[in-house]
## 1
Amino acid sequence: MQVVKQYPDGLFCWLDLTTTDPEAAKAFYGALFGWEFEDTPTDTGTMYTMCRIEGYDVAGLSGMSPDMIAQGMPPVWVSYVKHDDVDAIAARVSEAGGILMFPPMDAMSAGRMTLVQDPTGAAFGVWQPKEHIGAQLVNSPNTLIWNELQTRDKAAAKAFYTQVFDWGYAEDANGYGMFKVGERVQAGMMQMDESWDANIPANWAVYFMVADVAAAAARVSELGGNILVPLMSAGEMGKFAVAQDPQGGVFTIMQFDGPVDPPPGY
């Protein structure tokens, strides 16, 4: 098992789910991915849950505030980019036309963070680690393997992320965008065209690796979730499906037909 020890700046390092029903979410993801859970009180009086595989952190989970629920906000997976100076990144965000959803703040002794909305409307977090480096397991079954920006303005998004994080950028023959840190291709970008539902906002989609995507999709349905996009081919890479948990959180499950990149910094 390859356990991540630290993340280079600019790589996605963490993800967490904000949901209307944490206990139901734990039951769903525990049954789907085999995750274990540990609840930890925060200094705001709320509970934050660590999701683990064999004792290693893979994701986080927390409940929505009453105000968020009253506003009808849907459950959402949020991805976090690692950086050792979140305050400097926050300044870059503003300069590049993004919006700070709140200024950098300490998350007790775990780290320092902010949430950002890019100029196309997609939200993500920035994480400066202290005691918590992020996900200790990635790029292995039942863990995060890919982050994908789905946006209606690729040009604006490319300009923003390359300025804020110094990401490299390339496109394949089909126009699919790929963000790079050094030589590591670490995230994708897809243009949302007129075929997409107009109600779907720009977002950072999360992909979980599974050994058998057909079996995982069937399990999603058995557990009360929905399959929003049925099993599809990703060419030579493998197959995927887009799923929704019973509370409304959306994620992608993907089976790879060949080798995957090793985790960073292990």
## 2
Amino acid sequence: MDARTLREFEAEARARLGPAHYDYFAGGAGDEVTVRANEAAFARLGLLPRVLRGVGKLQTDVTLLGSRAAMPVLVAPTAFHRLAHPEGERATARAVAAAETIMIVSMASTVAVEDVAAAAPGAELWFQLYIQPDEAFTGEIVRRAAAAGCKALVVTVDSPALGLRERDLRNGFHDLPEHLCCENLRDGDRVRPIVMAPELSWEHLDRLRETTSLPIVLKGVTHPADARLALDHGAAAIMVSNHGGRQLDTVPATIDLLPDVVAAVGGAVPVLLDGGVRRGTDVLKALALGAAAVAVGRPVIWGLAAEGERGVARVLGLLRAEVEHALTLCGRTSIHDLDPGMVRPCRS
């Protein structure tokens, strides 16, 4: 295949996936206002380049919580990779390792975290977690992730209930095929469901932090007040995320929310962003507005569905090449030399 952009990879993936599975990955909650807004908001922002800056060898690597990434683009946690390709998360992990970046392994992975790590020795892995009401079971999952070599926990905090995903309801998509399951949820001879628990609070996060030495990233923070509370409760990093528009519809685009969260944190911890990143220019806009790195989810699934491991590698390679190209054209040598003055609203 000859896809040259992430959107072309999505078109190829749509042709290869069954309609219900494509809709599961592509869809969002309600009217999908937030799904559309995440991408549209980047298009409303422009980059203001500098000229005659003598750009030299580019520096795109970043170190986050002890993990190095060759580019400021991480792989966001997404569930059910084996719906997209038989090798699933194994193929994704191998491509991520080759790209020298960080993969956040989903709690809802269709390959166990131990097997993901074994498929890509030396890969930089973090682990995404929904805190479960059964705290002993949560603790066991955390211990497994740490033993597998995951270097951070990414705790999703925007999901006290599952989003109303109407595409899935129309398609009757409720469960994985019989040959697949969420392998990280095995408990003896059964596989537990993921429980979305409305009663979860900051106290649960405090108790989790007492049980592990892994740094904790809070994923799903959108309000500056919550960002400040996250610091009070020992978060090592914050990810500005609206769950790709899959939880509460009409939450604003993450790139619009980013500056206020960055200001609230005041440089105390790294701030990451996911949602709507489809171009290298999007990455630069997020970094200029204060993000330490971004994470991409759906584009990785499109690459995986289109060409397996090679497709994921090509998606990540496209993003890295676009980041380097945009950095050069902006007159900057390093991703650490970006500032809010580079970003201006575009008039429609």
## 3
Amino acid sequence: MAENLTKRDIVLKIYQKTGYSQKEVRDTVQMTLDTIADALSDGRNVELRNFGVFEVQKRKARVGRNPNKPDKDVIIPTRAVVKFKAGKVLKTRLKTLDLSKLEH
């Protein structure tokens, strides 16, 4: 299974490809993520061309079950969730993915 990509990995990769310091890259990456998070928490979708769209959606309230007390219903309230839809270029790149890397 492929290992996860971390924010640190992103910073190091950009640092190695550019002449910017790790601090500048780290700060820029963090500002980018903060800007995305701010938009999503304001209920705005984030569209990144050729990559994808982060969409804020409303999940309806529902009844759930506590596995420790299956006889008692738990009300799960309405809430906002973020869904990701891959863009055209990313979908094309995913078609070449070696699926054996995804097996757990």
## 4
Amino acid sequence: MNVNMPKTRLTITLDEDILKRVDAAIDGSKIRNRSHAIEYLLSSCLVPQSTKVLILAGGEGVKFRPLTNELPKSLLPINGRPLLEHTLLALKEQSLTDIYVSVAHLGKKIKDYFGDGARLGVRIKYIEQAESRNGTAQPLLQAKEYLSQEPFLVVYGDVLTKINFLDLLDFHNSHRGIATMALASVEHPSMWGVAAIEGNRIKDFVEKPKNKTRSHLINAGIYVLDPGVFKYIGSKSLRLEQDLFPRLASEGKLYGYPFEGEWHDVSTPQIYAEVMKEFKV
């Protein structure tokens, strides 16, 4: 919630049971009092359930042990389910069911497994990436016709996480920036894009910094983007991490949303082995 936005004082009467539930939301830090709790709960309920989600699942295939066949990273099995299924179920649980999946190499395997999403209670439409559209910027630009009406979620297909997507959407809507980046905290941040924040803004973003950095907040591969973002992506843009986010940070239009939930970037055999061990698979 943006405490700097204009406020209007109201007097309301609540049922005692509802008031107890409101009070239960107060954690003393993020939600400090009843007023904050009511505003937070209302804003969470009023996030448009029509919010669209773009999942970028067009990366190269992988062949991690003990697997024998090449798979898209989003189909790597974790705890009895493909990685992407964990994401889809989390979105469904938060009533975010209008989903576009951008696919490329081995995309048929993704489509064959998930179909139209009805089995999981979501609606999936697939966007075939053009062969020349490598990286993350061009697949996003290719989805412009579906995502140009209101802020939308972008989730990388090789990310396993527990995050409150609705809270992230509310955070973005209250700050009214061009982009909001979910930020995870890791011990060794140099493997990812590192964000230096000042207040709620990301003042500097560096992809895989070569020099030691003080910040341990890294790009979690989850964003809320305003349709205005398409003005920043040209036909020669390659990666959001290099061609978009540093520019938005320099213009004060990139916000950071740190969260403490579980997060794994399942992008290498080593990380996949660690995740498998954690889930005791």
